[in-house]
Amino acid sequence: MTDATATHCSEIYLDANATTPILPAAQAAMIRVLSDNFGNPGSPHGAGIRARIELDRARAAVAEVLHVPVDGLIFTSGATEGIQTAVLSALHPQRGAALVRVLYGATEHKAVPEALAHWGEILGLTLELLPIPVDQQGRHDLSWLAENAEGAALVCTMAANNETGAISDLDGIARVLDALPVRPLWLVDGVQALGKLAVDWLGLRIDYAPFSGHKLHAPKGIGLLYVRAGAPFTRLLAGGGQEGNARCGTENLPGIAALGAVCEAILAGQWQAGALNAAQQRLKAALQQAFPQLVINSPSQHCLPTTINFSLLGIPSKCLLDLFDALGLRLSAGSACNSKNAKPSFVLMAMGLGEERASSAIRMSISPNVCAADIDAAVERIALAGQILQTHLNDMLQLEQVALPDEDLELSSRYAVTAEQLPAWIAAHPAGVLLDIREQWEQAACCPSLGLAITAQPLSQLATWLGQIELDRPLLLACRSGRRSGQLLSLMRGKGYTQIWHLADGLAGLPMPSAAD
């Protein structure tokens, strides 16, 4: 590893469509509520009144950002709860119908079709669930929609796709629905739209729109649901009458205040679209220069400025993610909810881009609050990733062919060492050695100083070094994520290595050094 490569140790987060760091103003709002205005908004005394003011302030800010009435907003735990509430509300009036037709976008987040199937079963409905086809730009087939929407009870679409950034033609969908003899209810997933995309929720007569705070610099566990006046509504949670009796349970006031602070930042013009577009273009140009064979999967037009989805044909997504992760670049292969699913992206398959592109797809996503210095550093590391891939591609592909047994979960759990347990393990085994089984190209990410000897033995060369390791020397296996070390632990324990453990969450699970460090 060269000195230049060794400097790439700090983390650059480019997976904002999965979640985002909390905005300082949002954190300050949470602290204000936790320390000062901690009362229950439902209490009539002074502390409760101050809490109610916080709640009303946040709701007003959200309503102003979305240009909707304040009484149409319900604070929830997140978009998933909002989707459940919307689906239940739309399907509940259909009880007793012989057959209920529901259309949903073929690239919709899995939460939508899963919720439709779940509530259809709970309500005893016979559902005809039809996926709306999309074109290669990820936009809905409006002709198909016009032919199949008549008689539908509900239509579900996204404002923008979380994997590709494709922006739906909501105006076109609205025209199709308006032309029907009876307009179906319309649910629009607004998660990726909040703070990034102007949508006329009122003018388009959208009935339900769920949102999630943690996708836009608020904490996890807070979201909201917009419900159009007059749309059917069935509450998911009954109880103490909170949220106008629409969503009972004591309000998550710290989260609500944080989401309100984010919306106040939007209203203050903190995030400029021009800067976000420029950052996206810089990253796209860097990727295309580093990887000449790269194919862009995100649409060239009608795409969120936060998102770049791309493929390197013939190279599995996992190989690419390992490479980027080794350089401290945090990306994903698609939705974080499906990160453990090894199947090709269903979104790209629905777009007709083919299994090869879908199997090698990577999503890079930035937040409106992206730091210019991070973009500079990311461009540099992307260039380095291109150089590493050119030199070590065969090694990467060879690593995937190394035969390891399935991980013995009971064994790997018993002999796991977490980051918190590491100092105690080192103290108990002063002669211990950390066996770094990452590949040479993975060494681009520095191994932190841990206070014990470190020996690098690439897993791809396992056959050449396994027999040379002393059987009774304390060993701590370490890879990037803990997966390969857990598999190797099972193998080596079976071969008589009795003094062997593994770093449970890999080197990635250790505290990251800051840029200053």
From TrEMBL:
The keyword Metal-binding is annotated on this UniProt entry: yes
Cofactor: pyridoxal 5'-phosphate
EC number assigned by the record: 2.8.1.7
Keyword annotations from UniProtKB, A to Z: Aminotransferase, Iron, Iron-sulfur, Metal-binding, Pyridoxal phosphate, Transferase
One Pfam family hit: Aminotran_5
Annotated ranges, domain Rhodanese: 428-516
Matches recorded under SUPFAM superfamilies: PLP-dependent transferases, Rhodanese/Cell cycle control phosphatase
The family this protein is said to belong to: Belongs to the class-V pyridoxal-phosphate-dependent aminotransferase family. NifS/IscS subfamily.
This protein's name: cysteine desulfurase
